Amino acid sequence: SFIRNVLSIVVNPQLKVILQDLKEPAAIPSDVFTRAEKYLAAIPDIGAYSDSQGILTVREEVAGFLQQRDGFPANPDDIFLTNGASEGVRLCMQVLLRSPSAS
Known about the structure:
Elements: H1 2-11, H2 14-20, H3 30-42, H4 56-70, H5 85-97
Helix pairs in contact: 1-3
């Protein structure tokens, strides 16, 4: 799938060279390489911690998608990416239940 291919190249950038050297260049669509390059440029190191809201480039893409889908502007600074709905709910509950003296 598109996402799996992009993530494979982001995790192992050398894979891009290997895949581009294949005799069958259409095996991996060019937009996979374009997206992977965009993410690699935005991530200083794949093993490094990212912004706790998520990688800005991805949040910008999500904001663009939401604006296109819903017709309302979306601000990437207002978007928090999580590891799924449960993780997002847990994060919201922690914020809501946090004691005012804890801040």
